[in-house]
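Subgroup meeting minutes
Present: P.N., E.W., G.H.
Scribe: E.W.

1. P.N. recapped why we're keeping a running log of single-chain structure predictions: easier to compare across weeks, and new members can see raw inputs and outputs side by side.
2. G.H. added today's entry (125 aa).
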Amino acid sequence: MHQVELEDFERLVVQAVHNLPTEFASRIANVEFTVEESARPDDYARTGAPPRSTLLGVYRGIPLTRRTAGYNMVVPDRIVIFRQPLQYLAADAADLEQRVARVVRHEIAHYFGISDDRLHELDAY
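Output recorded in log:
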């Protein structure tokens, strides 16, 4: 377990977003990145994850592939990174940084419409 202050954890998320390849980062619009301590019950329902499983992050929004022409003037989608489980899994600061970056990329993949099944196929889970 490696714990950090909330501000430091938030910086890891910002850093992970900043380090995205330009071809992806330039296509992200109307998305808010936030940190919460742990998943809410509706996050489990949204993801289909069994209750009490470990969720590290969640995409709360409508993927680009499911948007229609009527998708406009909406509140930002949210990518939420869960602090407690990531800290619990991390062995040290470097491990935490890598885990946060991996979860940020994973949730961004959902924003682009890539399913968990497809991420498994690509070995990018």
